[in-house]
Amino acid sequence: MVYITRGLLAALCELAAERDPRSVTVALTVTPASELAPAGPAADDGSATVPARRNDVDLSALQPDADVFTDMYLPDTGGSVTAVFGMDLSTPGSAGRFISHPEGPFGLTKADDLHEVVFIAVPPYDRDAVAAFDRRGNVLTVTVVKAVPPEGSVEPLDT
Fold first, then answer.
1. Residue 135: inside a domain, yes or no?
2. Residue range(s) defining the domain that contains residue 114
3. Whole-number Å distance between alpha carbons of 132 and 97
4. Nearest-CA neighbor of 23 among 133, 151, 109?
5. Whole-number Å distance between alpha carbons of 149 and 158
6. What is the DSSP code (8-state) at residue 59?
7. What φ, ψ does residue 8 adopt, rounded to 5°?
8. For residue 67, what are the β-bridge partners?
9. Which of 14, 129, 133, 155 has minimal CB crowding within 10 Å?
10. Bridge pairing between strands 37-38 and 67-73
11. pLDDT (tens digit, 9 = 90+) per residue, 83-133?
């Protein structure tokens, strides 16, 4: 099972929709549940794009050491470095990756950058069009958490 905040899931879906018909790849980071704050009822956490559901879990239901995907490194950071070296050296190691497949498939491919957890999204880029996989391609259960990360939880990259 993997945990993701509703705000991050909404931001990823919006980014994929904006980039369509091009694919987008984004590095994702996790935050321990103990460092998160509960999302209030009026929180701007993506509720318009990724509406709440009964099976979304409250932060209090998680173990304090549970990793929750909370933040992303914006794509295209350090593009010139990547062009020279053929690999992304500008983004620190990340726990997961989000990849959009505008034309499918709704699954992991050999061309995808394999991380411990890979979220794949296909059109129409809503919560039903996002799935998570381990690096072997096994489907993982995605649980949306009603929480928000601490402000400034990802350090800006020095460029």
1. yes
2. 2-74+94-148
3. 10
4. 109
5. 21
6. G
7. -65, -45
8. 32
9. 155
10. unpaired
11. 555 554 544 567 899 999 999 889 888 887 778 899 999 999 999 999 999
Structural domain total, the chain: 1
For the stretch 41-97, pLDDT in tens is: 655 555 556 777 778 899 999 999 999 999 998 766 555 555 555 554 544 567 899
Q: Distance between CA 112 and CA 118 in Å, rounded?
A: 9
- Cβ-based neighbours of 17, under 8 Å, separated by 6 or more: 123, 124, 125
CATH of the domain at 138: 3.40.140.10
Q: Contact at 8 Å (CB) between 22 and 137? A: no
pTM: 0.81
Centre a 10 Å sphere on the Cβ of residue 117 and count the other Cβ atoms it contains: 22
Q: Determine phi and psi for 128, rounding to 5 degrees.
A: -80, -10
Pairwise CA distance, residues 16 & 14, whole Å: 5
Beta bridge partners of 145: 5, 57
Displacement of CA 116 from its chain's centroid (Å):
13
DSSP letter (8 states) at residue 39:
P
| 69-81 as b/e: b if 16+ CB within 10 A | bbbbbebeeeeee
Question: Which three-class secondary structure state does DSSP give residue 70?
Answer: strand
